[in-house]
Design a protein that fits this description.
Number of domains: 3
Strand content: 15-25%
Low-confidence stretches: none
CATH topology of the largest domain: Cobalt-precorrin-4 Transmethylase, domain 1
CATH architecture of the largest domain: 3-Layer(aba) Sandwich
Shape: flat
Structural class: alpha/beta
Largest sheet: 5 strands, parallel
Strand order of the largest sheet: 10-9-11-1-12
Radius of gyration: 21 Å
CATH class of the largest domain: Alpha Beta
Oligomer: single chain
Mean pLDDT: 95
Distance between the termini: 64 Å
C-alpha cells in the first residue's frame, strides 16, 4: 500500500500576465507572418515553453546579427537595451517588443530620473537579460549596478545628492529590502519608487511559499535554472524554514531519495513555468504515494496585459 503524503499547492503559481502576453505575441506573430519568426533571446526562461514555440516555427537567437532582415523578430519579455531596436530600425527589420509592461515601467522610471539629472543605482543580477536591458536604457555610466548589501559600500556616484534607485522585477523581496535600506543609510537623499519595482507576480508567489513553509517537510519549485524568479522562490522557501527546497525543471528531475520520510511536500512554479509541468509533477507523486492535495492560496490574480497594437488591428 502506498505511503500517504499531502501535497500543498501554492496559489498563485506559474504563468504571470507578462509571460502569458509574451508567449501570445510569438504565437500571433507566427499566425500573422508564418514561420520562421525570430526571437531574440529565450522569450521566457523555460525550456518547455521555448521548445514548444520552436516546434511551431520560432527561431531563437542571441543577437540581431543572426536574424535575416526580411523576417520578423520578437524581443523577449525581459526587455532589451535601446541599442537593439535602434539596430533593427537601421536594418529596416520588422520587430515586435514583448517586454513585460512592468519591466517597461522600470525603463520609463529610469529615463525620467535621468532626464531630471539623477544617476541611477540598479539593484539586480549582473548578466541577467532584464538587468542588461534596463541598464541599456541610459548612456554608459549612468546606471550603477549593485547586487548585495556589501556592494552598496563600493558605490562611487557622480554626486551623492543626486541619486535614484530602481530594481530588477524578479528579485527576493527580503533581499531587495535589505539593499534598499543600505542605500538609504549611505545616501540619505536617494530617491526610490513609491513602491519597489518587484512585480506583483513575484511578490504573490513568494508570499504563497512563505505561507506554505510551516506546513511542509520539503518544497519543489518548478522552473528553469536561468529563471531568476524561480531561483528566488527556492531561496524564500529555505529562509522560511523548509529543510529541503529544490528547483526542478520537470518530474524527471525530482530526487526521490531526498524526499524519503517526507509526509508533506509543497509545490509551486516560477512565473515562466506552464501549469502542464505542475500537473506532470503531481502525477509523478500520485504514482508513488497516496496523495491528498491542499491548496494554499494567498492571492488571486486577474491582471491581463494587452498585446501590441499590430495584433489588435482588424481589417475592415
Amino acid at each position: 500500500m502506498p505511503e500517504p503524503l499531502t501535497l500543498y499547492l501554492a496559489a498563485p503559481r506559474g504563468f504571470c500576465a507578462g509571460v502569458d502576453r509574451a508567449i501570445k505575441i510569438v504565437e500571433m506573430a507566427l499566425e500573422k507572418w508564418g514561420a520562421p519568426v525570430y526571437v531574440r533571446h529565450e522569450i521566457v526562461h523555460n525550456r518547455y515553453v521555448v521548445d514548444e514555440l520552436r516546434g511551431k516555427g520560432a527561431v531563437f537567437v542571441e543577437d540581431l546579427a543572426d536574424c535575416p532582415p526580411d523576417r520578423p523578430v520578437v524581443f523577449s519579455a525581459h526587455g532589451v537595451p535601446k541599442s537593439v531596436p535602434a539596430e533593427a530600425e537601421h536594418r529596416r527589420m520588422l520587430y515586435v517588443d514583448a517586454t513585460c509592461p512592468l519591466v517597461s515601467k522600470v525603463h520609463i522610471e529610469a529615463e525620467r530620473h535621468h532626464a531630471n539629472g539623477l544617476q541611477m543605482v540598479m539593484i539586480g543580477h549582473a548578466g541577467h537579460p532584464e538587468t542588461i536591458g534596463t541598464m541599456g536604457q541610459l548612456p554608459p555610466g549612468e546606471v550603477i549596478l549593485v547586487e548585495t548589501v556589501a556592494d552598496v559600500a563600493t558605490v562611487v556616484p557622480r554626486d551623492p545628492e543626486r541619486l535614484a534607485f530602481i530594481t530588477q522585477t524578479t528579485l527576493s523581496i527580503d533581499d531587495t529590502a535589505e539593499v534598499v535600506d543600505a542605500l538609504k543609510a549611505r545616501f540619505a537623499a536617494i530617491i526610490g519608487p513609491r513602491r519597489e519595482d518587484i512585480c506583483y507576480a513575484t511578490t504573490n508567489r513568494q508570499e504563497a511559499v512563505k505561507a506554505m513553509a510551516p506546513k511542509i517537510d520539503a518544497l519543489l519549485v518548478i522552473g528553469a535554472p536561468n529563471s531568476s524568479n524561480s531561483q528566488r522562490l527556492v531561496e524564500v522557501g529555505r529562509r522560511a524554514g523548509c529543510g529541503y527546497a529544490q528547483l526542478v525543471q520537470r518530474a524527471a528531475d525530482i530526487d526521490w531519495r531526498a524526499l524519503t520520510g517526507a509526509r508533506a511536500v509543497g509545490i509551486t512554479a516560477g512565473a515562466s513555468a506552464p501549469e502542464v509541468l505542475v500537473e506532470e509533477v503531481i502525477a509523478a507523486f500520485r504514482d508513488r504515494y497516496a496523495v491528498a492535495e491542499e491548496l494554499v492560496e494567498t492571492a488571486r490574480e486577474s491582471i491581463e496585459f494587452k498585446v501590441p497594437r499590430i495584433f489588435r488591428a482588424r481589417v475592415a
